[in-house]
Amino acid sequence: MPWANGVQARPFALPFPMAWQMAGVVLTTVVIGVVLALDKRADAPRTDGA
Amino acid sequence: MRSGVEGALCVAIVLGTVLGALVYGQRRSRHRTMSEWAIGSRRLGAWIFWFLNAGEIYTTFAVLGIAGYAWAYGAPAYLALTSVSLASAVGYWLMPRIWAEGHRHGHLTQADFFAQRYGARWLAVVVALAGIAALVVYVQIQITALALTLRLTLGTTLGPVQSALLAAAGMLAFVYLAGLRSAAFAAGVKDVGMIALVVGLSVTVSEKVGASSMLDVYRRVQELSPGIGALPGLRPEAGLTTTWLVTSALNVALGTWIFPHTFQLIYSARDESAIRRNAVWQPLYSLSYFFIILLGFAARLAGTRPDGGNPNAVLLQLVSDVYPSWTAGLLAGTVCLLALVPGSILLLVASSIFGRNVVQPLRGGLSDRQVLWVSRGAMIVFAGIAVWLSSTRNRSLVEIGLSAYAAIGMLAPGVFLGLVWPRANAAGVLAGIVAGYLSLLLPAADAWWARALPGWDRGLLAMAVNAAVVVAVGLLTPSRAAVPAGS
Q: Is A11 near chain B, with CB under 8 Å?
């Protein structure tokens, strides 16, 4: 974040730190989605928190 | 502004939704026990769970607070984007664990979790009171927003204290007449209404403020106010630096799931996979802050001047200034619901915790019905405290929100360490809460932090002190005395 805050570029006219945060949001979704898929494969039979 | 159309529409939306919610609630439930009233009997379907959870994003904090922050400070409003992603990552790990523990042991409230994990009923009382304190601060956000909207829409003849009292009375009336199931209906209405309004306003606002497109609003505002797009924003003296953003976002993320009402939301989910899927999609909801920040920046281009420079009022003032009165009425009505529904749910949660984890253990032998009445009475007291808090200091909704997170963060070490570290024990959790609150509230500690770690979020620092104390006490206690995790 300290690095992104100093970048002057304006992708799509947005302030760079804001575009950076939004990219982070999308990345988070992808990462958690991948982890969910991996977890499902790892413990498929687990149903009731056992 | 303040035309008859605006006020009438606002009142019509609120009354219509409340009536709809009551009919819906009546149809769905005939009997009322403590658990029905408090967590909807664990039978809430996936879609209601989703709406209740999405409703957590579209709060007054998010809509009025972040728009106002974007208008007043600029870049510090990005906190909303940062914290939601972090919170989802934490939630993905934490929520299924809380859910599994809750189902295995039949927990109804967060304090139940503490009582069972640490094997100490007195700790549950302490935790219940600490949780209620944080909830009351959170209710303060809703009361501040609802009171403000009432004042702007229905005319300024109402004083701040009167409008805050009116707001609290509205919330109490809603809870007494309804309960969680009816709130789910009202939450659905406000979510749909808010999404429609935010999209509608965002599409049209650029034209209203003399820009050619949404992105043009961002371009122009950066030309008008250099420095708005990067931290520390428009008022460097406020100390909202990158350090502030990172530490505040971390504290919010760690505290998000620790709120007592979030625990009860998690318990009301049908299974673990619903919770996990939810954590995947949660960050995407936060992209909608693009529109909220857009509206805040647009208000800057429009030269909006809210009464007394109050950032919380910026969005309502902007819409009132540049839109027809029916739009302003729709927004005011929806914002009222936005504050009314979560405010009511929070009061309900606070009172049910009070009944179950404070009154019942201290005064055993009361019937279920008596406890229900005592908790309903306590709710009035909680609402009163929230009104008092909102009238003592006029603060931005984001600041109040961060105080609520600082308060709830005091319970976070007990939850996280309780789940992963068998040696964490009740005495340590109590000592941690006390140490944390001291470092949060003592003026001397405040001055010391300001010198030692400038810009750091006080809530996160207090949480660190708290966790360190829990670990220290855990290490000093003989290990056989500890309760193994998940027992």
A: no
Q: What does the DSSP 8-state code read for residue B486?
A: T
Q: How many CB atoms lie within 10 A of CB B200?
A: 14
User: Pick from A12, A17, A33: which is nearest to B280 by CB?
Assistant: A33
**How many angstroms separate the CA atoms of B45 and A49, rounded?**
18
Q: Do B81 and A32 touch (CB under 8 A)?
A: no
Q: Is B242 on the interface with A (CB under 8 A)?
A: yes
Q: What is the pLDDT of residue B287?
A: 79
Report H helices in B393-425.
397-408, 412-420
ipTM: 0.72
Mutate to test the interface with A, among B79, B92, B225 (most CBs of A within 10 A): B92
pLDDT tens by residue, B238-295: 778 888 888 888 888 888 888 888 887 788 777 777 778 777 777 777 777 888 899 9
- By the 8 A CB rule, do B355 and B371 touch? yes
Contact between B114 and B124 (Cβ < 8 Å): yes
Predicted pLDDT of residue A5? 65
- Give the nearest chain A residue to B241 (CA atoms): A2
